[in-house]
Amino acid sequence: MINMILKESEITGVMVQYFKVCKRELWFYINQINMNYDNDDIEIGKLIHENSYKREKKEIRLENLVFDFVKNKNEIEIYEIKKSSKLTIGGSYQLYFYLWTLKKSNINAKGYLVYPKEKKKKLIELNNEIINELNEITQDIIEIAKQKKPPKPINKPYCKKCTYYELCMI
Amino acid sequence: MKQPLNINSNGILYRKDNTLKYTNKEVDKTIPIHAINEINCYGKVSLKSGAITLLQNEKIIVNSFNKYGHYQGSLYPKITLNSGTTIVKQALAYNNPDQRNYIAQEIVQGMKHNMRKTLMYYSKKGKNVTEYIEKIEKEPILNKNINQILSSEGKLWQHYYPAFNEITKNFPLKKREFRPPTNEMNALISFGNSLLYTTTLSEIYHTYLHPSISFLHEPRERRFSLACDIADIFKPIIVSRTIFKLVNTNMINKKSFKDDVGVYLTDKGRQKFIEEYNNKLKTTIKHPNLNKKVSYRYLIRLEGYKLIKHILNDKTYESFKAWW
Question: Is B302 on the interface with A (CB under 8 A)?
Fold first, then answer.
């Protein structure tokens, strides 16, 4: 039977985000089952992504990390564009993960979650508590990747808007 | 909601910038590409290379039918919903007799239930079909091996189709015959089944399942046999119901057919059939698990999701059984 081995270096920000929001979605994502198609919210999200901060260079890749854009003034600032500030926990951890990975290479950076539609901006900074948690999260993600079947659906109120809703509930 | 585009005339599909256009001697029209989910060609339609690229990028399947309404084939876009895990597990499920038999018999269970439901509907309307309902109910689905399941499936259709002669007197079925259909009712059933096959194929394309790995039918068959598996569950609810509506309300009558090498629908008859068939697919019903309204078309997609959940060992597959 298939045994998925996910290396620590293969963990991405999106995986950390899914880990905080829904472990089942994380498992699907690791197994390349991505339901983000045919969905208007996702399309809107993509358009916001494309049409905001047009002067910035977007999608900066650094090994397994992808930053929406980066500013480098006195210190490095990492930006993550989001459609809505409703469900922020996943986005915050995505940025924590980026900052933590950079920190391991002795790069100190600041993170910002930005919501162009709401004209809002949120500063994200690492602390020791979060660093300890990220250590655990990455180990847990590797464990979830090993699971032979998806974790059970959680059925939270925010599930209704999720693109996996039908796949989970049917 | 996206709709299928049906082309009944002869013409050319071409691309102008990022727009799909259809042209022939009479028309030159723009096709709103984001509003369609598939294209069905019943006339002679040529596709220019630009149009092919655009349709592939937009992930729109193009199905072609010959002048008799026989399905000829599909221009199937490259598979973008690609999950190695799913395809490997789908193949493993096929290869494991217990798994395969389970899924196959569950498909036949669904078919049986839906046959019964359809006949019950006409029984309530005063059609004398009790005898056929009983025969279907009594037919056991033997499931020791795939051949037993297939023979149970065959027997169920043998009990089911003769009931058509009770539901409508207009076009006696006598005997189910294929290629070429020898009478009107056979022509209607064959055409309806090929429409449902293409609809099912489009829906499978939007899941992660591979359309060639099937459970009830043999994957050896030339067609995308998973579409045959899933379509069987829905034939009584979608195809039969469409046919009876068309025939019993006289929307399709003797004039809607022509004799050639067999009996076939005329262009007009075919258009009426397609229109009514699409109305059926658009009809919505409240889904008890999802707690929202879904179309008949979407029910087919959900069948794909359920199969994915089964092969991933997430939830045991239960075939669609009309609950209303």
Answer: yes
In this structure, what DSSP letter does residue B290 have? Answer: T
| H or E element at residue B19 | strand B19-23
d(CA B68, CA B262): 9
Query: Crossing angle of helices A13-21/A89-104, nearest 10°?
Result: 140
How does pLDDT run across A54-69, given as a tens digit for each residue? 777 778 788 888 888 8
Give the dihedral sign, CA B23/B28/B32/B37: negative
Cα separation, A28 vs A145, in Å, equals 9
Closest partner residue to A38 among B206, B290, B308, by Cβ? B206
pLDDT score, position B40? 93
CB contact under 8 A, A33 and B83: yes
Beta-bridge mates of residue A95: none
B17: left (phi over 0), alpha (psi -120 to 50) or beta: left
- What sign does the CA torsion over B309, B311, B315, B319 have? positive
Would you place residue B274 in the very low, low, confident or very high pLDDT band (cuts 50, 70, 90)? very high
* Phi-psi sector, B287: left (phi>0), alpha (psi -120 to 50), beta: beta
Measure the CA dihedral A82/A85/A90/A92, to 10°: 80
> pLDDT digit string (tens) for B230-243?
999 999 999 999 99
Q: Identify the sign of the CA torsion A151, A152, A157, A159.
A: positive
Quick one: which of A120, A144, A131, A121 has its CA closest to A98?
Answer: A131
- A38 contact B CB<8A: yes
Q: Supply the ipTM of this predicted assembly.
A: 0.81
Token pair in block for residue B236: 């009584």
Beta-carbon separation of B85 and A2 below 8 A = yes
Probe site for chain A from B314, B318, B321, B323 (most A CB atoms < 10 A): B314
Asked whether the beta carbons of B45 and B67 are under 8 A apart, the reply is: no
Helix, coil or strand: residue B202: helix
Q: Are strands B257-260 and B71-75 parallel, antiparallel or unpaired?
A: unpaired
Q: Are B300 and B203 in contact (CB under 8 A)?
A: yes
A150 and chain B: CB distance < 8 Å anywhere? yes
Give the residue on B whose Cα is nearest the Cα of A150. B314
Per-residue pLDDT for A1 more than 60? no
Q: Please report residues of A whose CB lies closer than 8 A to that of B83.
A: 31-33
Q: Kindly report whether the peptide bond that precedes residue B162 is cis, defined as omega within 30 degrees of 0.
A: no
Q: Which chain B residue is nearest to residue A2, measuring alpha carbons?
A: B85
- Using a CB–CB cutoff of 8 Å, tell me whether B84 touches chain A: yes
Residue located via tokens 């009558």: B253
What is d(CA B234, CA B252) in angstroms, rounded to the nearest whole number? 22
Distance from CA of B189 to the nearest CA of A (A): 30
- The identity of residue A144, as a single letter, is I
